[in-house]
From TrEMBL:
Protein name: Solute carrier family 12 member 3
Region Disordered, residue ranges: 94-134
SLC12A transporter C-terminal domain sequence ranges: 657-786, 850-1026
Domain Amino acid permease/ SLC12A intervals: 144-648
Annotated keywords: ATP-binding, Cell membrane, Chloride, Disulfide bond, Glycoprotein, Ion transport, Membrane, Nucleotide-binding, Phosphoprotein, Sodium, Sodium transport, Symport, Transmembrane, Transmembrane helix, Transport, Ubl conjugation
Example GO molecular function: sodium:potassium:chloride symporter activity
Recorded superkingdom: Eukaryota
Subcellular location: Apical cell membrane
Domain (Amino acid permease N-terminal) ranges: 51-88
Transmembrane segments: 141-160, 172-198, 218-242, 263-282, 288-309, 343-361, 381-401, 455-478, 508-525, 537-554, 574-607
Family classification: Belongs to the SLC12A transporter family.
Function: Electroneutral sodium and chloride ion cotransporter, which acts as a key mediator of sodium and chloride reabsorption in kidney distal convoluted tubules. Also acts as a receptor for the pro-inflammatory cytokine IL18, thereby contributing to IL18-induced cytokine production, including IFNG, IL6, IL18 and CCL2. May act either independently of IL18R1, or in a complex with IL18R1.
Length: 1027
């Protein structure tokens, strides 16, 4: 026995027993394996990849999954690879497979091939690297997200309005406002983290997260609203900065015009400087944010030190007494004043200060790793800013009284009517409290933190840093979000702003637009007016982010697998509901405006239906609902009142038989199932052609609600049998087979006739109803012009194929579409003439021997607007002498409950001068009396299409009935818009296929209107009763 070779210290190496092989394909591809690595060559270049032996100890021929196979974009500096098709590893044809040295491994499994998506013909390099691009500036989670979010949250409200809110709502309710705001933003932060870690996040921030989760409908609307809200937030923070500067100018006795106009002038100058910083690039903007961050930290430390310092008489006169329990207890309770004096009034003013949590997500395209940076930075920012707000509200409320006069001489005298907690510390502010004229205190002075701090200029520097950093962050966020929205082309006239410049793809045009919007709101010059406007827009954004997380979770889509696990779908739903409720509690009219804008933009996108597919949770939810309803139908027995004609249409490529497709779509639209079917012959490309999405695209653009199903079979009848048995799902499956009339049956082979009639019998055997449509001009347009299915030029939307108006053309059809080719006019001119008869109120006539389906289809047609003015006339065959009696014998037509319906009885006594014409039609298929075999030498059993004299005599009555029926149709239905007639049925084995085709030909020949021959499956489709 041969000893096994063993590698030292590594166990057994299986590669030692694998024979090296190489495969050379006809197209020049080569594979080889040498035991430790495998190679791929295109003849001029070679790449190799190590096997997985290092990881597993085994050699494998399959390459590991490549990142390029799953990414939408390629990495800079190298060509992108594409996933190999299934054809490559399964069906590679090779000229030769030289095997060395063993014949046992003569057919090794082919290797996966990695090819370049951008390789041009003749390239000698398999990895022709692209020109390396300069690496744009990228930020980590601290610098890119946490600091940015904290700066945006620490805005103007912190310094200028939080002490005032504490005086109005009290310390306790202020903490409630802070915690409620933090709960909303915290839940939104968790939802944002879950969405951001579900896949690679690109630029666009909030818009990108919502649109890729909920789809373009809601994503587009919230993208516009969020970008606009950030633009207005620029104005809010700039006005806060201008207020501070104007206050400092007033203290020094300086002014330019008046206080309001001074704020406007300072605000415009400030936002212009911020625009210049933004245009300098993200790197400069990031450096500015770091400076602002440290300035704010120093100002916080300065404020906290000031609260512990002993109060000077000047500060006591302004209401500051350092930490006092009495002051804390007094300020803990609410004391609302003015028009805004309410809990939700204070909440609406404070909430914009908590809305900066998405500042980091909004620049997701500039982060090194958004899936790590967004969750970590956002949640840390929410935590630390919430702590800072609670501390400042508690400390300022425990140190400063609500009202103070500022007069150094307002000390306590022997006044027993002294009001306020300052009385206990020797100060009497009763006079200004009664007159509500106190200029100082928490309720009256916005600059209270400057007065409390150890060094007031540092607080001013903090205000400058907080307001300018927040304004700068919003000035950057709004254009970034808007740029991504513009690039998606969801709305018209905004694509101009989507162009980027520089290595960071800076939206310079978006910066200018945001600058203009900000100036418009800066002119309001009132912070308390601007803040509530922003609150509703941000709350609307947060509601949709939370709903996105909830909806993606509830649909159980396999594509929803975020790496961030600390979220709850029910908590996300709670956050969405609370956000909407608070919107209405804050400002109900602003909430209605925000929701109205969302609905308007949503309706626009639904109407335009942009050609984007982002795999949203709405699609997953639609699938879940459809699947649930389909399964639920199996638990309910069918009832005759709920019968619907669900049609399987043998249309071939739908674009080649548009009249047939349009007609069926008329009475199935929004009512029942329609499925266009195509049978292809086996060929290398037949399988791909049968599943070609261009057919569905054609149906959708024609506004026909239909499925498409293609099969490959050796012949037509076999393919139709596959469709009849396999089409549909559960109860949602076809029950009526719709097909065109075979006009060329006399020129075609006898086997084709037999196959056509066999399809009819197969439909009856499988309990299908049957409808055959015949038009004088034919149905197949591929023979008169180039079929759109065959020419790529028309594969997307063949506008030259006019919709038959009589078959209910879509009102959205472009009337300015190009005219059809000259050789295409014959068919549709006649159809349009027939439809005009219907529009003028002419008759649509129906011949009714025996089928409820023959009545139901015309009734469904008459429900459509295009056919509503048509009158239904029903003809019943019988004895003319018993006309009135036979009317009462046929009450079924009246179950249609049509407004205009008449029933007429006609005799079927045949005129025998038309019989000769029928005999000439069937003559080529008749067997001579002395002929016992077919012309090709086969016996009669193998030629079922041939007709003997016995079979003619046996079916004489039916033959004469069809002849007479055609004569009556020509007499009474020449001007009808459409004729619906019950189709004759031939007994299998007793009615040859040629005779059956002759019946169908005789009934429908020489008639200008379209003729629909209908036969049910002997099941009830109409009922007299309610139960």
């Amino acid at each position: 026995m041969e000893e096994l070779p063993v590698a030292p210290n590594e166990g057994i190496s299986l590669s030692a027993f694998r024979s090296p092989f190489s495969v050379s394909g006809k197209e020049g591809c080569k594979y080889s394996f040498d035991g430790s690595s495998y190679h791929y060559s295109d003849g001029n270049s070679m790449t190799s990849q190590r096997s997985s032996q290092i990881l597993t100890g085994f050699d494998t021929l399959d390459a590991a999954p490549n990142y390029d196979f799953y990414a939408n974009t390629n990495a800079p500096g190298r060509a992108r690879r594409t996933r190999p098709s299934l054809f490559q590893p399964t069906d590679v044809q090779c000229d030769s497979i030289p095997v060395q040295p063993s014949q046992d491994d003569s057919f090794p499994p082919p290797l996966y091939e990695e090819t370049s998506a951008h390789r041009e013909a003749g390239d000698s390099s398999e990895e022709e690297a692209e020109e390396p691009l300069s690496e744009p500036t990228r930020f980590g989670w601290v610098k890119g997200v946490m600091i940015r979010c904290m700066l945006n949250i620490w805005g103007v409200i912190l310094y200028l309005r939080l002490p005032w809110i504490t005086a109005q709502a009290g310390i306790g309710m202020t903490w409630v406002i802070i915690l409620l705001s933090s709960c909303i933003t915290g839940i939104t932060g968790l939802s944002t983290s879950a969405i951001a870690t579900n896949g690679k996040v690109k630029g666009g921030g909030t818009y990108f997260l919502i649109s890729r989760s909920l789809g373009p409908e809601l994503g587009g609307s919230i993208g516009l609203i969020f970008a606009f809200a950030n633009a207005v937030a620029v104005a809010m923070h700039t006005v806060g900065f201008a207020e501070t500067v104007q206050s400092l100018m007033q203290e020094s006795g300086t002014k330019m015009v008046d206080p309001t106009n001074d704020i406007r002038i300072i605000g415009v100058i400030t936002v212009t400087c911020l625009l210049a910083i933004s245009l300098a690039g993200m790197e400069w903007e990031s450096k500015a944010q770091i400076v602002f961050f440290f300035v704010i930290l120093v100002s916080f430390a300065n404020y906290l030190v000031g609260t512990f310092m002993p109060a000077t008489p000047q500060k006591q006169a302004k209401g500051f007494f350092s930490y006092k329990v009495d002051i804390f207890v007094e300020n803990f309770k609410p004391n609302y004043r003015g028009l805004e004096g309410s809990f939700f009034g204070m909440f609406s003013i404070f909430f914009p200060s908590a809305t900066g949590i998405l500042a980091g997500a909004n620049i997701s395209g500039d982060l090194k790793d958004p899936t790590v940076a967004i969750p970590r930075g956002t949640l840390m920012a929410i935590f630390w800013t919430t702590v800072s707000y609670i501390i400042i509200a508690g400390t300022i409320g425990g140190c400063v009284v609500r009202d103070a006069s500022g007069g150094i001489n307002d000390t306590l005298s022997n006044n027993n009517d002294c009001l306020g907690p300052a009385c206990k510390y020797g100060w009497d502010f009763t006079a200004c409290i009664k007159n509500t004229s106190c200029p100082f205190g928490l309720s009256n002075q916005y600059q209270t933190m400057s007065m409390v701090s150890g060094f007031a200029p540092l607080i001013a520097a903090g205000i400058f840093g907080a307001t300018l950093s927040s304004a700068l962050a919003c000035l950057v966020s709004a254009p970034k979000v808007f740029q991504c929205l513009c690039k998606d082309n969801l709305y018209p006239l905004i694509g101009f702003f989507g162009k980027g410049f520089g290595k960071n793809d800076e939206p310079i045009r978006g910066y200018v637009l945001t600058y203009i919007i900000a100036i418009c709101f800066i002119l309001i010059a009132e912070l308390n007016t601007i803040a509530p406007i922003i609150s509703n827009f941000f709350l609307c954004s947060y509601a949709l982010i939370n709903f996105s997380c909830f909806h993606a979770s509830i649909t159980n889509s396999p594509g929803w697998r975020p790496s961030f696990r600390f979220y709850s779908k029910w908590l996300a739903l709670l956050g969405a509901v609370v956000s909407v409720i608070i919107m209405f509690l804050l400002t109900w009219w602003a909430a209605l405006i925000a929701i109205g804008i969302v609905i308007f933009l949503l309706g626009y996108v639904l109407y335009k239906k942009p050609s984007v597919n982002w795999g949203s949770s709405v699609q997953a939810g639609s699938y879940n609902m459809a699947l649930s309803y389909c399964v639920g139908l199996n638990q309910v027995d069918e009832h005759i009142k709920n019968y619907r004609p669900q049609c399987l249409v043998l249309s071939g490529p739908p674009s080649c038989r548009p009249a047939l497709v349009d007609f069926v779509g008329t009475f199935t639209k929004n009512l029942s199932l329609m499925m266009c079917a195509n049978v292809g012959e086996p060929s290398p490309s037949a399988l791909n052609a049968s599943r070609n999405s261009s057919h569905v695209t054609w149906l959708n653009k024609r506004h026909i609600k239909s499925f498409y199903h293609g099969v490959v079979a050796k012949d037509l009848r076999t393919g139709v049998q596959m469709l009849l048995q396999g089409a549909g799902l559960g109860r949602v499956r076809p029950n009526v087979l719709m097909m065109g009339f075979k006009r060329d049956w006399r020129r075609d082979t006898s086997s084709s006739i037999e196959s056509y009639i066999g399809i009819i019998h197969d439909a009856f055997d499988l309990q299908y109803g049957l409808c055959v449509l015949r038009m004088k001009e034919g149905l197949d347009t591929s023979r008169s012009i180039e079929c759109p299915f065959k020419i790529n030029k028309y594969s997307s939307l063949p506008v030259f194929i006019a919709v038959n108006p009589g078959f209910e053309a879509s009102p959205k059809r472009d009337v300015n579409a190009p005219a059809p080719p000259a050789n295409f006019s014959c068919m549709y001119e006649s159809i349009q003439k027939g439809s005009m008869l219907c529009l003028k109120g002419k008759l649509r006539q129906l011949w009714f021997p025996a089928s409820g389906l023959t009545l139901l289809i015309p009734y469904l047609l008459k429900r459509k607007k295009r056919w509503a003015r048509c009158k239904v006339r029903i003809f019943v065959g019988g004895d003319i002498q018993r006309k009135e009696e036979q009317k009462t014998d046929h009450p079924l037509p009246f179950t249609m409950r049509a407004d205009q319906c008449s029933v007429e009885t006609h005799s079927f006594a045949s005129f025998f001068d038309s019989v000769k014409r029928f005999e000439d039609l069937i003559g080529p298929y008749r067997l001579n009396p002395d002929q016992k075999d077919c012309e090709d030498g086969q016996d009669n059993q193998n030629c079922p299409w041939m007709v003997s004299d016995e079979e003619i005599d046996r079916n004489k009555t039916k033959t004469l009935r069809q002849i007479r029926l055609n004569e009556v149709l020509q007499d009474y239905s020449r001007d009808a818009a459409i004729i619906v007639v019950t189709m004759p049925v031939g007994r299998r084995g007793q009615c040859p296929s040629a005779l059956y085709m002759a019946w169908l030909e005789t009934v429908s020949r020489d008639l200008r209107p379209p003729v629909l021959m209908v036969r049910g499956n002997q099941e009830n489709v109409l009922t007299f009763y309610c139960q």
